[in-house]
Automatic annotation (TrEMBL):
Molecular functions (GO terms): metal ion binding; tRNA N(6)-L-threonylcarbamoyladenine synthase activity
Enzyme class: transferase
Top-level taxonomic group: Eukaryota
Protein name: N(6)-L-threonylcarbamoyladenine synthase
EC number: 2.3.1.234
Domain Gcp-like span(s) in chain numbering: 23-343
GO biological process: mitochondrial tRNA threonylcarbamoyladenosine modification
CDD domains found in the cross-reference section: ASKHA_NBD_OSGEPL1_QRI7_euk
One GO location term (cellular component): mitochondrion
Catalytic activity: L-threonylcarbamoyladenylate + adenosine(37) in tRNA = N(6)-L-threonylcarbamoyladenosine(37) in tRNA + AMP + H(+)
Amino acid sequence: FTLLGLESSADDTCAAVVTSEGHILSNVVVKQNEELAEHGGIHPYVAIQKHQQNMPGAIRRALDEAGLDVSSVDGIAYTRGPGIGGCLSVCSTAAKVLGATLNKPIIGVHHMQAHALTPLIPTLYQTQTTFASAAEVELPPIPPRFPFLSLLISGGHTLLLLTHSHDQFKTLATTPDISIGCAFDHVAKYLGLAPTERGYGAALEAFCASGTARFTDATPEIAVPMPRQLAFSYGGPRSRVEIFVRERGGVQRVPLSTRLKLARAFQAAAVRQLEEKTALALEHCAKLGVGVRDVVVSGGVASNAYLRKTLRQSLADTFPDDPPNLVYPPPHLCTDNAVMIAWAAMHRFAAGDFDSYDVSTRPKWRIDDYTGKALARLQ
Ligand code: ATP
Ligand code: FE
């Protein structure tokens, strides 16, 4: 069967057509880069307006690029939550209207479940030969096996999940303050960087990779002591950069070489925290007798190439005898997309586990509470 996926939980308007075998027939992502740059981040009202403007065209393009008439689509999957309420209502209403009009089933998907299940798309493992060199191959030969660890690092979340099955997740670590993606965005702004077409986080990564100094030069000013506990914290490193710049009278007064050093120190500290917490989580699972062989890293920040390389090396060093299998979905499937939304709905679709056309959105939705339809019916 074939599903149309719709996503509009944050700032990207996405539509995609995916088959139950995992063939990606189309993947349309409409970004809001100008609005991001103008408002220095996501402005909810602007984002809602842009979704309303862009969603119909995104759906049309997704169907055209898939070469399908809408009547050949078997169902519609959309992001039900979590996310910005008004933004979620755009993909949700689009899915419901299409479903009700065409008399096709709809399935409301948990956005973080979709990020977590992306690496299970089987066709990703058949297309590895398209990588330019062996060094670029970032997926192991086979998909991750349950239970696996999911490190979800994005604009709204910093999560370490024990993924037991397609619909059972346990949060091992989260953050009481800002997300890692948010910290990358803020630091890029403090350092006076303009967003690239892939956003502020990608601009910070590109800045760190520019110039001739060493990639990971550390600067003591933003070193933050890290307790040996599972919770993440990115407010500290972010604020240190902010204070450093403010104390010097603004970013214009900080020499380029110092800005570069700060950016690299922040990026290195951010990744070091991921290394430490992932290692702790693996030790924690081993103590509980839960055999975890694979670690999936996904969400927008997982498209960072420095992070991919450093984390792989660090885990190999920490667990030399039995290194975990690291799984990185391709960068364009780490950031928001509707392929993952359609894919995450496949199991429920196969089981005939559909949502009713009057199901509500869930802007706040803990992934530990996710149980598919049973809960959807109750709420
Ligand atoms: P969530 O998935 O938690 O609801 P979201 O959907 O807004 O949040 P994603 O699209 O998954 O988030 O990720 C966006 C975040 O990823 C932004 O904060 C962005 O700056 C960050 N990001 C994207 N590319 C990079 C990169 N190369 N390096 C660091 N951060 C990046
Ligand atoms: Fe996301």
